[in-house]
Amino acid sequence: MSLRGTIERINGSLVVARFEAEPRIGDLVEVGKLGLMGEIVRLSGEEAFIQCYEATSGLKPGEPVIDTGKPLVAELGPGIMGTILDGVERSETKLWELTGPFITRGARILPLDRSKRWGFEPTVKQGDKVTGGDILGTVQETESFQHRILLPPGVEGTIEQISRGSFTVEEPIGTLKTATGPVELRLMHTWPVRRPRPFKERLPLSIPLVTGQRVIDTFFPVAKGGTASIPGGFGTGKTVMLQQISKWADADVIILIGCGERGNEMADVVAHFPELTDPRSGRRLIERTVIVANVSNMPVSAREASIYLGITLGEYYRDMGYDVAVMADSTSRWAEALRDISGRLEEIPAESGYPAYLSDRIAEIYERAGRVVTLGSGQRVGSLTLLGAVSPPGGDFSEPVTTHTLRYVGTFWALDQELAFRRHFPAINWLRSFSKYLEVASQWWSKYERNWDQVRAVALGLLEEAAEIEETARIIGEKALPDEQRLILLVAEMLREGFLVQSAFHEVDKFCEPEKQAALLKIIVDFYSLAEPLIRHGIPIEKVRELDIVPELMRLKEREGIKPIEEARIEMKRQIERLAKEYEVAPR
Ligand SMILES: Nc1ncnc2c1ncn2[C@@H]1O[C@H](COP(=O)(O)OP(=O)(O)OP(=O)(O)O)[C@@H](O)[C@H]1O
Ligand SMILES: [Mg+2]
To answer: Residue 120: in which H helix or E strand, if any?
Structure first.
């Protein structure tokens, strides 16, 4: 059923129309003679407020509006992987081919290619009873990605017929006998982007998402199915960090959502991503990545939708039983779009002009993360980890998007302008960040280091103590400090340079395997345990600082594997013993 209406007035991307009967909130509408894409966001009497996803210039009152009777849905099926989509799931790459770099408004391209054929291999057979979420078969979508074809949620019955062969996304691959009659099975189905996809059961989070980035994995880990926020001012490394995680995290599928308004913010990623090599397969990373980005001249409203599209795609792959990492860069742009829409709707603004429901919307987004038992028979487990960058204006973390996000996420990686300025990257401030997944991580890490909790706590404790000592040093000068404190400053420096700092561009150090992370941290902490008694016995700090092993420990991160760390341990003991002997101190 489609309802007709007429445009009454236009305010930027907001169009007000009067319909012949009352339409539904959330319905997708075609606006004006060009048939621009829009969504009904509010009703007031007979007036419907439509948020347009395309530029409304030239649109005039009196032009027709058609309510499609359907919400904004994502098309789910083979053909999404490896593409770049805009916020309303039109393929950017394909649209470009059609209309040039600036998308012609109203251009209709169905998200999934209708003509492409996919080789389908059924895994169910005639007579099988199936229920929503069950896997019907597989399609090798890219060399690195196997697409599992799901029976859509809410459907159940007995397989009447199913064929193996080559199909387009719309052609029937079989039929299902259901209580209400036969249903044709296809490679694709649709899902409303604003509605979370259902699952059977939420599982406790029990596995860390390993990223190969030391400050993350060791100090502020995120769990598979967990959430993390990356707030940071201009140029503090948000985008690089998300790229590093896309590249190295042990997730099967990566969804990158670029909400940026400036085309160039995402253009860089879009330009470089296809060139990245997947360290897992040696093939191209894009083969298991989807990018949702408004690189075109679309209005802010499309940004608002893009985050929901990205998460819906993520849930779809989760439902296949994959570990998915969804990354949004940056959620501040999404929140600004929300503010813009709210302003046009003349809603009463709350903090900094954001609508009062900002907090609820942020919560709803992060609630879509999780590790779940999927729908369907059996115990298939999938996870969706959600990581969101936040760009607080002026790097001020007390602004609403940062503070509300802080309440809902499990990990908070606070990026620090001063660290970035000193080129300490990743610029994660270890004093302001937190992770609620430490218990999960600790269990997992114990296979690499028995006393992981303790080693980590000692290291973090030293870093915290050093921060306090530095305050004093600023006033009285470092040389006036007692040697015990100067040793802590030295070890903190070793931890910073030898462990926390990790260049995304260093051939070896860009990725650090867990075993090496544990060994590196342990050796620096052990250095402290060995040096501390020497200082207590009156050996001057300068003597400890001058040991050859000190700079060596800071360079170990750049050596391949853990063998150099084992060798350094022997050398460290030798040098400490020699120093102790020199001063006739019995080493521990
Ligand atoms: N892990 C890293 N290793 C080395 N250099 C880094 C790292 N992270 C960030 N940088 C440096 O910092 C620069 C800025 O990083 P990035 O573009 O990620 O910042 P941003 O926070 O996304 O900025 P914006 O606010 O403009 O979006 C990079 O171009 C790079 O030179
Ligand atoms: Mg950025």
So the answer is: strand 118-122
